Amino acid sequence: MKIATFNINGIKARINALPEWLDEAQPDVVVLQEIKSVDDAFPREIFEDRGYNVETHGQKSFNGVAILSKLPLEDVRRGLPGDDSDEQARWIEATVVGKTAVRICGLYLPNGNPVELDDAGQPVEGGKFAYKLAWMDRLHARAAELLELEEPALMAGDYNIIPQEEDCKRPKGWWGDALYRPESLAAFRRVLNLGYTDAFRMRNQAPEQYSFWDYQAGAWNKNDGIRIDHFLLTPDCADLLLDCQIDAHVRGRDKPSDHVPVWVELDA
DNA sequence: ATGGCGGCGTTACGCCGA
């Protein structure tokens, strides 16, 4: 089973690039982030015509996630539990049954910039960085629950986290940003420490492997990127991992997203 | 090098992202 994650930065803007990549990569399941569309405006026919079932969790203008799957999507849930007042569409999950059932979660973790701290060094309540950390607390709680399921599970998406120095071309330039600073990395490691595996680093130790390049300043041409799109696997799911790759070449095409697809192949 | 690009909503720029 080939499962991909792709932050498309707007479904309307990627109306050609996304089907082109789907047709060549032929993933069985895709989790999408930043569809920037309400559910009713999502062009589901484009994907249904290619044999995908479509489940969206959208909102107007910003955020928005979706799952496309050639296999039926069972027990679909929308929204990350833990805060009923959170109206941002950043989480969707469903079960897909191939040789075995896999619980698949698609996520768009808050960016967190600008980092606002009070005089005591604590995130300012109501600020974007505080929202990021609170969201990661909820992610930790859901991640712990997934470990208790009787099926392999994974959480894939745009984490807006640079896990380590080697996941970034200019670590000194990024240090202190909400994507790469102590509080963010500690929250990410806290999820990993539950027993999750970063699928890409399980299969690939090469340097300069990125999944995002800014549109500005010729970042793609300089390979000035960061690796922030991740697959975290439960131990049962990691046992099924066959491969994990980044389709970086997609970034060089016409009208690209600033992110590229990342995918895993599971023996599932 | 915290904004040089691009998407969105709206229709001239402001907000947002990373």
Quick overview:
This protein has 7 helices and 14 strands. It is of the alpha+beta class. Helix 3 packs parallel to helix 5.
Describe the structure.
The chain is an alpha+beta fold and 268 residues long. It has a single domain (2-266), classed as 4-Layer Sandwich (Deoxyribonuclease I, Chain A). It is built from 7 helices and 14 strands. The strands form 3 sheets. Strands 3-4-2-1-14-13 form a 6-stranded mixed sheet. A hairpin with a 7-residue loop joins β3 (53-57) and β4. It is globular, with a radius of gyration of 17 Å. The model has no long low-confidence stretch (mean pLDDT 97). The structure holds one DNA strand of 18 nucleotides.
Topology overview:
Layout: E1 2-7, H1 17-25, E2 29-33, H2 44-48, E3 53-57, E4 65-69, E5 73-78, E6 91-97, E7 101-108, H3 128-146, E8 153-158, H4 171-174, H5 182-192, E9 197-198, H6 199-203, E10 212-213, E11 225-226, E12 229-233, H7 235-238, E13 241-246, E14 262-266
Parallel strand pairs: 1-2, 7-8
Antiparallel strand pairs: 1-14, 2-4, 3-4, 5-6, 6-7, 8-12, 9-12, 10-11, 13-14
Helix pairs in contact: 3-5
The protein binds one DNA strand of 18 nucleotides through residues 9-10, 12-13, 34, 36, 60-62, 111-114, 160, 173-174, 177-179, 212, 214-217, 219, 226, 228, 258.
CATH topology annotation: Deoxyribonuclease I, Chain A
> In one word, what is the shape?
globular
Mean pLDDT: 97
Distance between the termini: 6 Å
**Strands of the biggest beta sheet: in what spatial order?**
3-4-2-1-14-13
What percent strand? 25-35%
Kindly name the structural category: alpha+beta
CATH architecture: 4-Layer Sandwich
Helix content: 10-25%
- The helix/strand series, from N terminus to C terminus, equals EHEHEEEEEHEHHEHEEEHEE
Uncertain stretches: none
Question: Counting H and I runs of at least 4 residues, what is the number of helices?
Answer: 7
Q: What is the C-level CATH assignment?
A: Alpha Beta
Specify the biggest β-sheet: 6 strands, mixed
